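Re: that backbone. Tokens:
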């Protein structure tokens, strides 16, 4: 009988992180950097004199609720086995509803004359919502593959659902950060932190 600790036993295979989780973490880090740079550009651009307040469609709050419920449904799918399929389908359906709601918000803005080229603030609103919706659609593609392979392998299914749930939580966190940036970062706030724009009268 060996007296070596378990991690020194030759027959024990090393436990490696799952490649799907590693890949997701790297992807989320890249996306976080991307949106952080966009928010920084947004804050710097609003210091220009032609800046107008960002439109605040009420529908965006309803869409936020749909995405939050999608995140909850995905977490329930990750934690439960009996009703995993139901919660997984609900999480995907609510995320799709969120994307549809973002498109509907675009239509409302366009109908009221708040197009993408009206002001730089509008452009940032469309970029934020459109780029985030594109990442949600990408997640829905992975979600659809997970649903199609739901009953093939129990261990693989559990890992895939966990990856989907993590990504849904990440999408919600990014969206809340974007909302906070669009609603609460103002030119006065930026000037108080960075000082007046170069060449402007303080």
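Recovered sequence:
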């Amino acid at each position: 009988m060996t007296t070596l600790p378990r991690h020194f036993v030759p027959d024990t295979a090393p436990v490696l992180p799952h490649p799907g989780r590693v890949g997701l973490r790297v992807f989320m880090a890249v996306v976080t950097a991307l949106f952080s740079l966009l928010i920084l550009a947004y804050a710097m651009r609003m210091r220009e004199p032609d800046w107008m307040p960002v439109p605040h469609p009420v529908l965006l709050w309803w869409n936020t609720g749909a995405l939050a419920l999608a995140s909850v449904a995905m977490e329930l799918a990750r934690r439960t086995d009996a009703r995993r399929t139901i919660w997984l389908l609900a999480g995907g359906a609510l995320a799709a509803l969120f994307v549809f709601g973002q498109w509907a918000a675009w239509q409302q803005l366009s109908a009221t004359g708040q197009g993408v080229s009206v002001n730089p603030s509008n452009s940032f609103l469309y970029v934020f919502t459109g780029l985030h919706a594109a990442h949600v659609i990408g997640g829905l593609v992975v979600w659809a593959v997970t649903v199609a392979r739901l009953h093939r392998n129990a261990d693989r299914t559990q890992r895939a659902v966990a990856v989907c749930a993590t990504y849904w939580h990440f999408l919600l966190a990014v969206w809340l950060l974007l909302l906070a940036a669009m609603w609460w970062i103002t030119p006065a706030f930026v000037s108080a932190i960075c000082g007046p724009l170069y060449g402007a009268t303080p």
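The chain has a mean pLDDT of 86. Residues 66 and 97 are 7 Å apart (CA to CA).
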